[in-house]
TrEMBL record:
Source domain of life: Bacteria
Entry similarity comment: Belongs to the Gfo/Idh/MocA family.
Annotated organism of origin: Paenibacillus solani
A GO molecular function held by the record: nucleotide binding
Annotated Gfo/Idh/MocA-like oxidoreductase N-terminal domain residues: 1-119
Gfo/Idh/MocA-like oxidoreductase C-terminal domain residues: 136-327
Protein known as: Oxidoreductase
Length: 332
């Protein structure tokens, strides 16, 4: 598989690091308007460095392009790549609006290119294990969940990350991880209610979402840029027979408490993450590349990615109006 990387910032370098060591994959080009960043990625991967995508497209054997650009640039470049008939692995979120995401999807379908969106949380061992446990019947029917994601206020990145018109803000950029996961866990959303608190000094962007699902499940989500501590993710998934908990700050990765424990039927079931040779980004990229090779369906479909954008967009609307937003039937 011959692949190129478009954008050599933070995520582009993560992709470069993982693709460089992946068997059967050759990084043939890296592109960034900043020549120093492009050269750094080229040194890591052995690829040729470019400062414009038109030069990259001159490569004859290119098959796939990984798009690691700022969110507001996803659509225009994915459309260009699709026109060349090249497959696309694009960082999340797919786009800033559902309409843009749907246009990207349609363009790739028109030109016979596959489009994958990097909702990497599904590939984190603790989240993936929690999904499987929640649907195994171990905690009964999952009915409620709480998700939290805290991080320092973004710095640098040429200002795009903190510009809601370019990144979508804390809901579209940060919380969309948990939006996608909650929808994977519970299915279609019936309504979303959101509130956002912002502060300029010190900078803070804090949001809370409540998602009501059509199967009557409820999820509450918290996202926080400006957190003074270490990057933190937490979740609880509750069923009528038990609860699954995770806290990234604890040594114990995943804890499942069931009603059987209360009846003295055995110890809590603990699912450790275990030692992993490769990080979740490696697993995600490897999975998408295998889907291209064998034509299989990905763990994260483009429909899933469009749906996450739709819910995040509705949450932004709710935060602006102070009212819940009902979700229609055709949003992906």
């Amino acid at each position: 598989m011959n692949i190129a990387i478009l954008g050599c910032g933070t995520m582009g370098m993560i992709y470069a690091h993982n693709l460089a060591k992946m068997p059967g994959v050759t990084v043939t080009g890296v592109v960034d308007i900043n020549a120093r960043r492009a050269e750094r990625a080229a040194a890591l991967t052995g690829a040729k460095a470019y400062t414009d995508v038109a030069s990259l497209f001159e490569q004859k054997d290119l098959e796939t392009v990984a798009v690691c650009l700022p969110t507001y640039l996803h659509k225009p470049y994915v459309l260009q790549i699709a026109e060349k008939g090249l497959h696309v692995i694009c960082e999340k979120p797919a786009a800033l609006t559902l309409e843009d995401a749907q246009e990207m999807r349609a363009a790739c379908e028109q030109h016979g290119a596959r489009l994958f969106i990097g909702h990497v949380v599904r590939f984190f061992p603790n989240y993936h294990d929690a999904y499987q446990q929640a649907h195994s019947g171990k905690i009964g029917a999952p009915k409620m969940a709480h998700f939290k994601r805290y991080g320092a206020y973004p710095q640098g990145m040429e200002g795009w990350y903190t510009d809601p018109g370019k990144s979508g803000g804390v809901i579209m950029d940060l919380m969309i991880h948990d939006i996608d996961y909650a929808c994977w866990l519970f299915g279609e959303v019936e309504s979303v209610y959101a509130s956002v608190v912002k502060r300029d000094e010190p900078k803070m962007d804090y949001a809370q979402l409540t998602l009501h699902f059509k199967n009557k499940a409820i999820a509450s989500l918290t996202g926080y840029w400006g957190y003074p501590g270490p990057f933190t993710t937490q979740f609880e998934v509750s069923g009528d027979q038990g609860i699954i908990r995770f806290d990234s700050n604890q040594v114990q990765p995943l804890d499942i408490q069931t009603m059987g424990l209360l009846r003295g039927e055995g110890p809590a079931v603990q699912i450790p993450s275990g030692s992993s040779l490769h990080d979740p980004y490696y697993k995600e990229l490897q999975h998408f590349i295998e889907c291209i090779r064998n034509g299989s369906d990905p763990l994260v479909s483009i429909e899933d990615a469009c749906y996450a954008v739709a819910i995040a967009q509705a949450a932004g609307q709710s935060a602006q109006t102070g009212q819940p937003v009902m979700i229609g039937g055709n949003v992906s």
